[in-house]
Amino acid sequence: MRTKAVAAATLLALALTGCGAEIAPRGDAATASAHYPVTVENCGAPVTFREKPARAVTNDVGITELMFALGLEDRMAGYVMPDDKGQVDKVPWKDAYQRTPWLSKRQITKEIALEARADLVFAGWHYGFDESSGFTPQTLSGLGIASYVLTESCHSGKGPERGVMSPLNALYTDLANLGEIFDVRDRADRLIADFKAKIAAVPEPAYRPGVFLYDSGEDKPFTSGRFAAPEEIITKAGGRNIMGDIADSWTTVGWESVVERDPEVIVINNYGTPDAEAKRKFLLSFPPLAGVSAVRNNRIFVLDYVDLVESPRNPAAVTALAEYLRTVPAR
């Protein structure tokens, strides 16, 4: 059977060194250079590559666009992405989307990685990697496939909490690491400098309104703590994330805490055109929120999902939200 044969062959490429994994991607001899081997730290562990990956597979839109932003579509075997993550025909990387195989609109699996002959899977905890499904870096390592974990999603302890650094530092860390892994550090450094300059150009606000990020949920809302991208998108835009004291990335809270903290603006995480309008109607008609400032004044701003997860769209999201927040009067 083909899957078993591929799995057996890939085991020959795996060697463990110290506390990190040393992976030899299944590229051709042309991928070797004086740059390799190269070691990066990912979620607190060293990972060593002896060659440039040639058949990377990515999971989800933000992760895929990190690769595209670095011009690495030629090193990709494809991407896995649901079709509800917004329009991609007008983004700067639309040509990369057209040139790169869309492997699945469902959950990424080891079978997809094997069928694609992947030598690297770039995903994140709850952005593809999940202990309950059995799709983990450890599983892939047993098949001879390297992994890179999205830094925004790193486990921060033994529990389910995620996040080990500020969200924009996570973005810059991943770009720098990908630059090393694929030997395009100059591109990565230019992109990081460009992102930092765009964010630095946003004026310091005279007043910082409280902002609540609403992802989903009616019984209890799913929102962003201080380690998910909205924390710094809101902060750099001139707002104050009312859930910024929570030491987690994406998490569930109670409506009573939202009411108590009385946000002046609600940012909706939009998963698609009908999604945002349905969420707006719910928020404006939900009785417990009737007295909340954002609802009373109909101050609801919409950003797309890919704007609000770690991605190269984060700087533009900061700029767009900053323009809106400047219209909010001081209390």
TrEMBL record:
Source taxon at top rank: Bacteria
PROSITE patterns: FE_B12_PBP, PROKAR_LIPOPROTEIN
SUPFAM superfamilies cross-referenced by the UniProt entry: Helical backbone' metal receptor
Family to which this protein belongs: Belongs to the bacterial solute-binding protein 8 family.
Domain Fe/B12 periplasmic-binding: start-end pairs: 55-331
Keyword Signal: yes
Signal peptide coordinates: 1-20
Membrane spanning residue stretches: none
Origin organism lineage: Bacteria, Bacillati, Actinomycetota, Actinomycetes, Kitasatosporales
Protein name: ABC transporter substrate-binding protein
Naturally occurring in which organism (per UniProt): Kitasatospora misakiensis
CDD domains reported for this sequence: TroA_a
The entry's keywords: Signal
